[in-house]
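User: Some background: our group keeps a shared notebook of sequences we're curious about, and every so often someone picks one and asks for a predicted structure to add to the entry. Today it's my turn. The entry only has the sequence so far, pasted here. Could you supply the structure so I can complete it?
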Amino acid sequence: MVSRTVLDNGIRIVSEEIDHVRSISIGIWVESGSRHENSVNNGTAHFIEHMLFKGTKTRSAFEIASAIDSVGGIMNAATGKESTSFYIKIPDYHIETAIDLLADIFISSRFDEDDINKERSVVLQEIKMAEDEPGDYIYDFFEGLFWKEHPLGLHVLGSKERVASLHRNGLLGFFRDRYRGKNLVIAAAGNLKHGHIVELIEKSFRSLSDLAVVDHILAPEAKAGTALFYKELEQVHLIVGATAPSAIDRGRYAAFLLNAVLGGSMSSRLFQEIREKRGLAYEVGSYLTSYRDAGVFGVYVATEAATLKETLGVIKEELARCAAELISEKELKSAKELLKGNYLLGMESTDNRMAGLARNEIYFGRQITPEEVVSRIDAVQKEEIRSLAERIFRPGALAVAALGPVAEEELH
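Assistant: Of course. Here's the predicted structure to add to the notebook entry:
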């Protein structure tokens, strides 16, 4: 059973009682990420994520880590483009410890100057590590091209130059403006009672202000074109991308199925054609990234420079085929079963249930049931998928980004 409560300071609490498990996953989700930054303070949200683990008025960084380790729990955090999350998974009988710790880091983190300087070095190493992983870095490089001149194109980690210039007052100002009541969703799933969760949260978070900055964010406009980051590597890492339905667009279910057919599994068209039939790449696949008002449909592949032209040609041919022809009945059925199966299997994890509760609250203001998701997937028709492909894969609308030892003319 899913329940929802809004505290006087605006914090939204959403929980799901699952009485056949012995764990509870609980997380604070902040509607703040790199999209809420600019070219001057880029990297702030991610840096704040790090700082909330560096010490509070009553706990050192070691004591924060020990508080969870000593009860057999797991604590982590993640910063994205539209939200930041801090979450804990613990045995159900340690829920008080989890909530107390989450409240402590949110209300009493010190943002000590010495800790900021030490953590700056850590974050700079994280940026360098990401740049050394071309299979990861290409996604940031692509989105910088695709969402050029819009905050969605900013890297979540920030650049080395921006991180080097972040200071305590700027971090605190960003934190005080955004990490507050109306911007917070606390989601929990597992062996819990909603009333008990609300009581604990209200007691621990009542001092948190309800004031939060209201951002007026313009919708992004995707940019077609090509971009090359020349680097001496063994392979060329390539992304071909197009616009996609947003996280709240009803057309997202057709996009899910298009992704499954095109490159979402080992039996997909791109995997079979590029890897199995032609042996052009080890890793190839498509993906969807959805934001509140926009989305990206991308195809990623890593291949040798000598086979890049052929590989890119195959990708464009398959995109055009999806736009011109209906998929087969067999492909449609297989894609639907793949989506439903993956979704329902994921629902067996309290972590995924908790994250789903938070995302539904943030994007829809209501909970979308598993039955509704399955029904929406089953309702999609072949023509909806072809129509979507025709709209987003139209000539001149694709963006192509590459990282590796190749000339830019090879991208056309």
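Suggested note for the entry: The mean pLDDT is 96. The chain has two domains: 2-205, 225-411.
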